[in-house]
From TrEMBL:
SUPFAM superfamilies: Clavaminate synthase-like. This is TauD/TfdA-like domain-containing protein. Coiled coil: none annotated. Keywords: Oxidoreductase. Residues 20-44 are annotated as: Disordered. Residues 117-370 form the TauD/TfdA-like domain. Gene3D superfamilies: Clavaminate synthase-like. GO terms for molecular function: oxidoreductase activity. PANTHER family: FAMILY OXIDOREDUCTASE, PUTATIVE (AFU_ORTHOLOGUE AFUA_4G13850)-RELATED, GAMMA-BUTYROBETAINE HYDROXYLASE-RELATED. Pfam families: TauD.
Length: 420
């Protein structure tokens, strides 16, 4: 009998164990935590030099690394320049004449008379008989010349905010016929310090502060920036040739060209997917293209780098700093004035901004468009094709909106704002 009882207890324990194995909550797998290199949004030249020295000491063969297959040893183009090459701003500034300004005013009235949504602004609906051909020629300079120009100057105080937006988009349609969405369905965004009006935990991008913006690119082919107002002090707009930076790296540190051309983990800052992988640098259709923003690898203010996605490597940290400091080394500071529109080839020229200060009377305020000229556009690398389709081909003219008041873009909102 005792043996039977023991067997019954044993069977019961086995049954309970089997039952618990089937009904217990599944174990939650802990997310890994990744440690970033010692790098922040604001580049530190001493850290950069120390990292370079350390990596070269560990592997002296790095400067002998072959360039990625097909990448050129040296680029030859008007797009290879340094700031000291330009002696006078008249080399890149196109001054609007009184006749041009009347033509713009007439085009504004013509578009108003059509009673169409602003998304219908185009070469056809904003006619510029003499200025239009000039802008078409300047667009060629963006794509096959030095890669930038400034249009001076729109009399912004003579118009309302909406009228300035119409003029800006109408004139710009003669440079690039497509406008990209920036916060779908909005195709217009504002670059302005919002730290005095928005809670600190909602700001995750330097465009909405007075901080220095480091060298980077935006999304899309052409960046257009329209100065409604300049700051009281600082805020110099700086541009630099990525092709010049490429040539120096290809000659001195080809290993960093290789690093830049390999996949990097772009932070989704808690979105879906959590991160994406793609290169920063491409050689496509005989053109070098760079597309990146530093904060996506280092975080910024209320959007710190996510700790549960792969960290960047020491090589990537060095490459990120190398690109920035080469941008600084060869930069051109633009005398960006109120009413100016600055156009930049976003694929071959990267840009930055000095820190600035506002006063109650003068608040730096820019409007931004991302444009594409379908006739002159560079071919898009396959890794960027989906992004470009979302930018330029997902909204109709009837759907496009032009917000007239500044707001933090969704992609630059702090996590407190994103997930409140």
């Amino acid at each position: 009998m005792a043996a039977v009882a023991v067997q019954q207890v044993t069977d019961l324990l086995k049954n309970n164990l089997s039952l618990s194995q089937h009904t217990a909550e599944p174990a939650v797998e802990a997310k890994p935590t990744y440690t970033q290199p010692d790098i922040q949004y604001a580049p530190d030249e001493d850290k950069y030099k120390a990292r370079t020295a350390r990596r070269l000491a560990e592997d002296p063969s790095l400067p002998s690394t072959p360039l990625p297959e097909g990448f050129p040893k040296k680029l030859e183009s008007p797009l290879v320049w340094e700031g000291s090459d330009f002696k006078d701003e008249e080399e890149w500034v196109y001054n609007l004449t009184p006749e041009h300004l009347k033509e713009i005013d007439d085009a504004l009235k013509h578009f108003r008379g059509l009673e169409k949504p602003l998304g219908h602004l185009s070469v056809a609906t904003f006619p510029l008989p003499t200025l239009g051909p000039v802008l078409a020629d300047l667009a060629r300079i963006l794509h096959s010349g030095r890669g930038f120009f400034v249009l001076r100057t729109i009399p912004v105080d003579s118009y309302t905010r909406e009228e300035n937006a119409i003029i800006y988009a109408g004139v710009s349609s003669h440079v690039g016929n497509l406008r990209a969405v920036q916060d779908a369905p909005a195709v217009l965004s504002h670059i302005k310090d919002l730290t005095q009006t928005a809670p600190a935990q909602t700001i995750g991008g330097p465009a909405f502060t007075t901080d220095k913006q480091v060298f980077h690119t935006d999304a899309g082919d052409i960046i257009a920036l329209f100065a409604l107002e300049t700051g009281a002090e600082g805020g110099t707009s700086r541009i630099s040739s990525t092709w010049k930076a490429y040539n120096e790296l290809a000659e001195t540190r080809p290993d960093l060209i290789k690093t830049l051309s390999e996949p990097w983990p772009f932070d989704g800052f808690g979105g879906t997917p959590a991160y994406t992988l793609r290169p920063l640098l491409y050689y496509h259709d005989e053109k070098v293209i760079i597309q990146y923003a530093r904060r996506l690898f280092t975080g910024y203010l209320a959007l710190p780098r996510s700790t549960d996605i792969p960290a960047i490597t020491e090589a990537q940290a060095e490459a990120l700093d190398a690109v920035h400091f080469l941008g600084e080394k060869y930069n051109l500071g633009l005398n960006f004035q109120k009413g100016d529109i600055q156009y930049i080839n976003n694929l071959g020229v990267f840009h930055a901004r000095d820190a600035f200060a506002d006063t109650p009377e003068k608040h730096r305020h820019l409007l931004r468009l991302w444009l594409r000229n379908e006739e002159l556009a560079w071919k898009t690398p396959k890794e960027l094709e989906d992004l470009w389709k979302r930018l330029y081909y997902t909204t109709t003219p009837d759907e496009q909106t032009f917000p007239l008041e500044p707001a933090i873009r969704k992609g630059a909102q702090g996590k407190a704002a994103k997930y409140a």
